[in-house]
Write a structure and sequence with these properties.
Blueprint: H1 3-7, E1 14-18, H2 22-33, E2 38-42, H3 89-103, E3 108-109, E4 112-119, E5 126-132, E6 138-143, E7 145-148, E8 155-156, H4 164-170, E9 175-178, H5 182-192, E10 209-212, H6 216-227, E11 232-235, E12 241-244, H7 251-254, H8 258-261, H9 271-278, H10 280-300, E13 321-325, H11 332-337, E14 341-344, E15 349-352, E16 358-361, E17 366-368, E18 371-374, E19 378-379, H12 388-394, E20 399-400, H13 422-426, E21 427-428, E22 431-432, E23 436-437, E24 446-448, H14 457-461
Parallel strand pairs: 1-2, 1-7, 2-3, 7-24, 9-18, 10-11, 10-18, 11-14, 12-13
Antiparallel strand pairs: 4-5, 5-6, 8-19, 15-16, 16-17, 20-21, 22-23
Length: about 450
């Protein structure tokens, strides 16, 4: 950092926070509380909230975590009155709007898309090319520091063989869109997908809406469409794990460190953690706990032993775990078990049939489809914001993973784990604590937030 910048209080410099989701809002508010005087949030969305913005949520969307885990510390999160304590997408949208209204009045520029970011030619500060989506004007803005909070949920990932271009090339006749657009396309989808006629034994069954993916969004979308009387087929490699019980789990389990004690950490700080994760008998106890939790959840949801709904990864191995609480009769698992949702797992959709009315699976099967919703996740938004040279200079590119013999996790609980995805085995990140790229850490003028996957988003981003 230059001597001139060291002599100046950094809190007087302008800061651009890019993105108005949970991470962007809490980043801006924290900077203001820490004494930064010139903080602006730039958001391409017309409404705050990111994935929880009012124009992106849809009916049937529920929070997949315990109440309060998306709460930001400065604002109490009210209980939902309509869903037995489970928050809906509407609840989250209202909560985030209330947070922005209370703490960030006049700090948010909506409808402003940041298209390109580069360093000032003098080496200090940043130049942002922005597009005002309402006036269609383009201009350049300069800031002393920036925090990118566009996260991992702003750019939909659509497999090339299943996107709208592939559908058009194959002559597919139905709608094809990403789950991020489900709310905006919902009425078109309902109009194009015929409802099931339960009163007629003679009418042919309409082709189902095919939902590709097994995550929380895919499950919510399938449940909503099934409750609206549409045939639905889900295609996925496996499904998110879930927890459920005949009664809500007590807070001493759900809102304490109990479950985290049974999960491995890079530092085992207590003798109990070391016993559980580094001894043979400790591994047996950990395995018994996680397998018991999974089995009791299957039992609570009344899932048959041979059901494809059991094709999940044990919650111990990842954080794709949905808290279902007490299973609902109109929820995803109940609807799938009753045949209202056809679940095809351990397979992938690889393209569209040449008949214009089907999806092709990797084993050659053809699945009829009236429309296709791609709940296939998201990809990084960073690549479009920076040139390759700036990305290299900041250290945002994934790095080739290196074996570090000094930091081996030789835990008995990690033996015989599921196979790593090839990308996870090959690449590693060099973003320090999920906030600052290590290559840029001494310049103190660039950070990211909201890019880490976490089961407790409110705590993590704050």
């Amino acid at each position: 950092m230059s001597p001139a910048r060291l002599a100046t209080d950094p809190r007087s410099e302008s800061v651009a926070v890019i993105g108005s989701g949970v991470a962007g809002l809490i980043t801006a508010h924290t900077l203001l509380r820490d004494g930064f005087t010139d903080v602006r949030i730039l958001s391409r969305d017309a409404q705050v909230g990111g994935v929880w913005a009012a124009n992106r949520i849809y009916p049937g969307l529920y929070l997949n975590n315990v109440h309060g885990e998306y709460r930001l510390s400065q604002l109490e999160m009210p209980l939902s009155t309509a869903t037995g304590g489970r928050l809906t997408g509407d609840d989250m949208a209202r909560y985030i709007e209330a947070y922005a209204e209370k703490f960030l009045q006049g700090k948010i520029e909506s409808g402003v898309e940041v298209e390109y970011i580069r360093r000032n030619s003098c080496g200090a500060g940043w130049i942002l090319d922005v597009h005002d989506l309402r006036s269609s004007k383009r201009e350049r803005k300069t800031f002393g520091r920036i925090v990118v909070c566009t996260g991992g949920c702003s750019t939909p990932r659509m497999p090339a063989r299943l996107n709208s271009d592939a559908a058009a090339a194959a002559g597919f006749q139905g709608l094809v869109f990403h789950s991020a657009d489900f709310g905006a396309r919902l009425q078109d989808l309902l109009a194009s997908a015929a409802a099931v006629d339960d009163d007629s034994d003679l009418a042919p069954a309409p082709a189902p809406v095919v939902v590709v993916g097994g995550g929380k969004s895919a499950q919510d979308i399938c449940a909503y469409l099934a409750n609206e009387g549409r045939r639905v087929a889900m295609i996925c490699h496996n499904l998110d794990a879930f927890t459920a019980g005949p009664r809500p789990l007590p807070n001493f389990i759900r809102k304490s460190r109990l479950l985290s004690l049974f999960s491995p950490h890079i530092h085992l700080r207590t003798s109990l953690e070391r016993f559980l994760h580094t001894t043979w008998i400790g591994k047996k106890i950990v395995d018994f706990m996680w397998h018991g939790l999974a089995q009791s959840s299957f039992d609570a949801a009344k899932i048959a032993p041979d059901s494809p709904l059991r094709n999940t990864v044990l919650p111990f191995w990842h954080i794709r775990v949905n808290d279902e609480g007490v299973p609902r009769l109109n929820g995803f698992h109940a609807l799938a078990s009753s045949g209202k949702i056809d679940v095809l797992t351990a397979t992938h959709a690889v393209g569209f049939g040449q008949d214009g009315q089907s999806v092709v699976l990797e084993d050659g099967r053809f699945i009829p489809a009236s429309a296709v919703v791609l709940a296939t996740g998201y990809q990084s938004s960073w690549s479009s914001l920076f040139s390759s040279s700036t990305t290299d200079e900041l250290g945002l590119h994934p790095r080739e993973a290196e074996t570090n013999t000094a930091s081996q996790w030789n835990y008995t609980t990690l033996v015989n784990g599921p196979p790593l995805h090839p990308d996870a085995r090959r690449w590693s990140s060099s973003v320090y604590r999920g906030l600052v790229p290590a290559a840029n850490i001494t310049r103190r003028d660039f950070a990211v937030n909201g890019a880490c996957i976490s089961p407790n988003n409110g705590y993590t981003v704050e």
